[in-house]
Fold this sequence. Notes:
This protein is an alpha/beta fold.
Amino acid sequence: MSFFFIYLTGDSMEKNKRLKGRKTKKILGTILLCLIVLILCFVAYASFDTRNAGRSTSKEGPDEMSLSWMSGLSDSLMLSEVSLPGTHDSSTKNIIFHYSFQCQDTTIKEQLMNGFRFFDLRTALCTNDDGSAGLCMMHGPGHCKNEIGKNLTLREILADVYDFLEAHPSEGVVIMVSRERDADSFDETRKVLYNEIALNKDKWYLGNTIPSIGEIRGKIVLATRFYDGSFKEGVDPGLNLDSKSQGFKEIRDYFVEEQVINLAGESIWVQNFSEYNYTTKWDFFKKVLDGNYTSEKSFLINYLSTSRGYLFLPHPKVNASHLNPNLLSYPFEKGKSYGIILVDFGTKEIAEKIYLTNFLGD
C-alpha cells in the first residue's frame, strides 16, 4: 500500500512538473511574440523614415533676428559669456528607429536659420560619395539620413554651415564632434575629421583656448568630445570639451561638474544627467539655470535632453514635450549668461528664448 501511495505521489509530482513546464513555455512564447511585434514596429518606423526623408517638418520660417542675432554682440565678449542655443544629437531628423533615437525634427540647415549656433554631432567612419574616407552621423545603432534617404555625412553638413556663414558673416557656429561607434578607432576618427577641416581650414577657429566673439565671426569653432583622455594640447586642434559620463540612474547629490580643459586653466561646467525621468531632469537643469557658472574662463553646457523612456525604450520626444515648455516659461534674468543650452526637438521659439537673454540688459 505504501509503495502504491509513493508511486501515485511521484506520478502526481511529475504531472505538476509538466504543467509548470507548459506554463513556462507559454510565458516565454508570449515574451518572444512581444519582442517580435516590437521589432516589427521598429522596422515600420525605419521604413517610414526613409519614405519621409525629403519632407520637412519645420513650420517656422527665418527672420532677420534668428539669422543674425550675433551681430548685436560685442567683439570683445568671450564665447563662454554668451547664452548660446544648441541642439542635442543635432543630425537625427531622419534616422532609423525614430521612436528611440530621433532627437530633432529639423535639419541642421533649418536649425541654423532658427537661431541655433551649437551643434552636437555623433560620428562613425564611412565613405564619402567621391570614395574618400568620411564621417557619417549616427545616434546609438541608428544611421542618420539626409533629405533623399542616403547616409548623412559630415561633408554635407559642413557645406550647409559654410553657406550659412558666407551669407551671414556676423555669426559664429560651434560644432562638437564625438565618436559614436566603439568599433572605430579614435586615431582614425581624428585623422578623417582633420582632413575634412583641412579642405576649408580658413573657415575654422582651431584654437584650444576660449575665443572672443570677434575671433569667430564667419567661422566654425571646433570642439571635440572623444572621452579617451588622449587630447594633446598644442597638437590636437580645437577646444577639448571632454567631460565625465553622467549616465547615472540613481539620483546624485550634485547637479553639475567642473573640469579643466587646457593649460591656461580654463574650464567647463557640465550638466548632462541623461538617465533621469523628465521631472528629475528638469529639477537638475533648473538648479544650473539658477546658479552662476559662466565667466571669461569657464564654459557651461547644460543639457535639457534625457533618454529615459518607458520600460527599456528611450523616447526623447515625450521627454521634450514636458521639458521644452518648462524652458519657455522660465524667467531668465537680465544681464546673466546661461551658457550653452542643448535641447531636443529645438524650435525657433526656444532658440529665441535663449539668445535674447544676451540682450535683456540692454
